[in-house]
Amino acid sequence: MKLIVVTGGVLSGIGKGISGASIGAILKASGYKVFMQKFDGYLNVDAGTINPYKHGEVFVMDDGAETDLDVWHYERFIDVSLNKSSCHTSGKLYEEILMKERKGDYLGQDVQIIPHFTDLIKSKIQEWYTDAEADISIVEVGGTVWDMENEYIVEAMRQLRQEFGENNVVFVHLTYLPYLAATKELKTKPTQNSVRALRTRWITPDFLITRADADISEAILEKVAFFCGVPKNHVVPAPTVESIYQIPLDFAKRDVGKLILDQLQLPSDKLDMSAWEDLYINIKASIEELHVAMVGKYVWLEDAYYSLNEWLKVAWLHQQRKVVLHFIEAEDIEKNGVDVLQDMDAICVPGGFGERGIQGMVMAAQYARENNVPYLWVCLGSQIMAIEFAKNVLGLDDANSQEFLPDGQHNVVHIMETQKSVTTKGGTMRLGTYPCTIKADTLAREIFWVEHIDERHRHRYEFNNAYREQMEDAWFVVSGTSPDGELAEIVEVKNHPYMIGAQFHPELISRPLRPHPMFVGLVKAAMEREG
Ligand code: GLN
Question: How far is ligand 1, taken at its centre, from the CA of residue 380, in Å?
Answer without folding.
Answer: 5
